[in-house]
Amino acid sequence: MELNGVPIDNTFAEGFPIWVSRVIITGVTREWAMTAATEATGFATSAIGCPCEAGIEGFVSADETPDGRPGVSILICASKKKVPEQVMERIAECVLTAATTSVFNGMPDAEEKFDIKIHFFGDKFESKVEVGGRQCWKIPIMEGDYIGEEVFGMVKGVAGGNFFVMADNQMTALMGAKAAADAILDVKGTITSFAGGIVASGSKVGAKNYKFPIPATTNEQYCPTIREKVPDTKVPEGVKSIYELVINGVDEAAVKKAMAAGIKAAVKVPGVSFISAGNYEGKLGPFQFKLAELF
Amino acid sequence: MELNGVPIDNTFAEGFPIWVSRVIITGVTREWAMTAATEATGFATSAIGCPCEAGIEGFVSADETPDGRPGVSILICASKKKVPEQVMERIAECVLTAATTSVFNGMPDAEEKFDIKIHFFGDKFESKVEVGGRQCWKIPIMEGDYIGEEVFGMVKGVAGGNFFVMADNQMTALMGAKAAADAILDVKGTITSFAGGIVASGSKVGAKNYKFPIPATTNEQYCPTIREKVPDTKVPEGVKSIYELVINGVDEAAVKKAMAAGIKAAVKVPGVSFISAGNYEGKLGPFQFKLAELF
Amino acid sequence: MELNGVPIDNTFAEGFPIWVSRVIITGVTREWAMTAATEATGFATSAIGCPCEAGIEGFVSADETPDGRPGVSILICASKKKVPEQVMERIAECVLTAATTSVFNGMPDAEEKFDIKIHFFGDKFESKVEVGGRQCWKIPIMEGDYIGEEVFGMVKGVAGGNFFVMADNQMTALMGAKAAADAILDVKGTITSFAGGIVASGSKVGAKNYKFPIPATTNEQYCPTIREKVPDTKVPEGVKSIYELVINGVDEAAVKKAMAAGIKAAVKVPGVSFISAGNYEGKLGPFQFKLAELF
Amino acid sequence: MELNGVPIDNTFAEGFPIWVSRVIITGVTREWAMTAATEATGFATSAIGCPCEAGIEGFVSADETPDGRPGVSILICASKKKVPEQVMERIAECVLTAATTSVFNGMPDAEEKFDIKIHFFGDKFESKVEVGGRQCWKIPIMEGDYIGEEVFGMVKGVAGGNFFVMADNQMTALMGAKAAADAILDVKGTITSFAGGIVASGSKVGAKNYKFPIPATTNEQYCPTIREKVPDTKVPEGVKSIYELVINGVDEAAVKKAMAAGIKAAVKVPGVSFISAGNYEGKLGPFQFKLAELF
């Protein structure tokens, strides 16, 4: 199929289960909420080398936050065991310490819940307080009082939704990917965890040519500069640059919506020449997102 | 002493040794370099709960980078053993994967050097290349070729330079701290690792009231909302909000310069009423930065 | 009445009729659309000295723009005669010249329409083209082809919706006003035309003390630093700083919604102590927005 | 000649005299200074349809501003008669009304001076005050007191320094131009007045094909999409997109430096294929900036 004149590969993205928790960070202004959210979701691109995968889901207007202040929603994704630990650490180190912030459970209806004991930081000076119907702790700190929830929900979501943006030159592929990342930022329930929402270097599990153990190496099949040296290359003729959008979401529907919005945005960028997606031939992940069925 | 009419406490900030490495990240534009730098220095506020302390030192103009592209300099601070590991992980996960980036050793003259083997990611498709007199590796990736140095310097620097900005209301203290953080961003050789460069919640080692082991709890002596309940409070009368600027630097001179610049900026903000600093009475850290001697 | 514990003055804002046109600017990314929109709405704070009043209404998602690209909506407000001239000039100088932009009529259903002859810029190299059901002109330019509509709608809207944010110190009043401006940015059909959405210096018509003609001078009744010298001061006791939010909108309902959203946001900022509004005792403007009836 | 492998046309940019004034805007933080500066330099791309040409010269650190606060420097360019009027209007409407700002003369040593009577806005509540050795007026306003200088210098500078960035696709040309604009932002004494610092649509004086009077039409010689229809086209074969950087500066040296910095940045962007410049064969402007002599 084609979209805006750009061929869409007849393939699918292969996704995996991952546990996802949503934290709503509010602040005195949107900017201060975003400052904390950015720090809290840093160093969280890929579970291969980072403690988790995390990203900014979007702004939450003051009407929709428990304390009526402007907010930013973040998703933190990892194994079931690691999510509580990472939510704890990232709130404790990056949000409690940030100016004017509060945190709230962004998944109050999730069946799976966990508790982070941040109030111990109060050293018994803390107290319980209700905010917008939520049970919170009020902890005296230097700026005044920190207020936040401690019970959070998590759901079994999807990691690894993805697509590739290709072009015959790097700047076009980059702008296509950037337009896609912007569009995905508007889709609720999803994040792109890499810097700027874009992946410049895809990887394969292990190595083909190095014999010692190594968790991941470059996915040479998608490397345009060595296209001639890789017999089973998947780089289409003429393509000189590829960026990948990797999407985590709270469920399959959200990931599909994000993939569709991202691809629609990318094909609007003049010069984007091909859209494809990455999979393991269906052998590894239970979710298959066929590109042709997204639209 | 007073500065712009604001009393400066007759005290000192107490600093500690820490190992510091500088990584120069370049990109096709300043914005793309900053995108990678922001991700790479996230989740790195405090060594208590984060893998390292890291932050953005500043922009590096194209004239000063090895590849002649616009750059952002970051500092990564940790123990001597942990610095190489963290430089490796943060480059591998957050910069190699980011769009259009290269990395260069920001401390070529440091005696202490270490080597990160990122080129193994190339799975033997990589090759050596010289850029601006630097030995780099060129690794084929999806966007094209990633190019970066792998030998980095590190120096024994200073952690914990600090000062407090106080006011009789929270917004004034916040704006004073923000003005200080902006000013410190201009001082070479230093970073402020917390979100927005500001700390809202200072901590003490361990707990006073909880009996189980806990690494850090709120520093109640500097908590304005419980001033009346804390006999040895250090909150001056009338102060309702305090923010701390915590500064790491490559040496004592840089930290002093950053403290001076930050304090000068803070006292310009109308309503800022007192500047102090945190220490352990000189018992823990070898560096003492007396506020009165900064100017 | 009180809102979040902050007294809301028993008064009203007085508004005036103004003609309003909406221009949708799209770009290859949201950022490039915003770059053009910012230039196009600059030097447009107040009709007293600027050619018009203009501001950014908000983002428009790709789903809602005629060309399926990300957009920014701006409102341009002036007299019925001046609106077409200003829409023409600001598109011709600031948007046609900006990178990757298109413009579309943001009020296709308005009865009042006008035509701007930008296609003459094409010097007969231009041609007609339809985009998303809109009749556009395609003009060859250096970057490629500029595409845009030339017929725009305008409606009789409202200028001068307003409220005051007061506090006993400047930084608190400023942050209260900033939070309000952020909230108003989310309300469709409205803009705040001043820098950052905030007015620091209110004015009265003419002068009291200077005898020569002068269009506007400081509104001394609302100046905290001369409160003691102005017998009919309207500065409440203890108030040391006031910022005004001035809102233009497409109709009364939009202005009311923006006032309500802004005030609700402002009273959430700790230390904001009073909310009022400006009027001419109902003598000049046909619209009266009573604060108490907004909520 | 070539630069980084990109051919640099053997031609020159033709510049014109223009009067230039520099205004230093300071604020409580850098961000608030920038907010005012952005509004004050809006709707000021080209003297053809805007009241002046204006832009942001750069940040001024607190050490270098008269009031010791962070600043942003702007340049306002027009005829000798219009500069004072535009400096007056843009300060009065966009800076005096903006939060926390002060303004200072950025050309204290210029021989040519002018006086703007903003203090009349004070309606005789104003008073004189000295700040950092500068004679200022203090005017009571709603936020507190506005403080600013009223005597400004202006110099006979240069308008129309320029170069073209070309590529075989639009996104590459755009990123090349963006990298150039970023680089020019670092060169003191210069501005790029168009949105984002980039011109997408160059113009020629008058029209060739329309017979009625029209001040400017598209410069068809530099339009890639009609290359085949324009016998005297100057679009090199294969070029599909061109952006222009137009630079105004305080003197010839500054413009040269900006052109050199911009071109060096542009040729670093992969895919940029040609750099040229615009002139009127030396018939109109007294300044000629030969590209080959810039480096």
From TrEMBL, chains A, B, C, D:
InterPro entries: ForMFR_H4MPT_ForTrfase, ForMFR_H4MPT_ForTrfase_C, ForMFR_H4MPT_ForTrfase_fd-like, ForMFR_H4MPT_ForTrfase_N. It catalyses: N-formylmethanofuran + 5,6,7,8-tetrahydromethanopterin + H(+) = N(5)-formyl-5,6,7,8-tetrahydromethanopterin + methanofuran. Keywords: Acyltransferase, Cytoplasm, Methanogenesis, One-carbon metabolism, Transferase. Residues 1-141 form the Formylmethanofuran: tetrahydromethanopterin formyltransferase Ftr N-terminal domain. Catalyzes the reversible transfer of a formyl group from formylmethanofuran (formyl-MFR) to tetrahydromethanopterin (H(4)MPT) to produce 5-formyl tetrahydromethanopterin (5-formyl-H(4)MPT) and methanofuran (MFR). HAMAP family: FTR. This is Formylmethanofuran--tetrahydromethanopterin formyltransferase. It comes from Methanospirillum purgamenti.
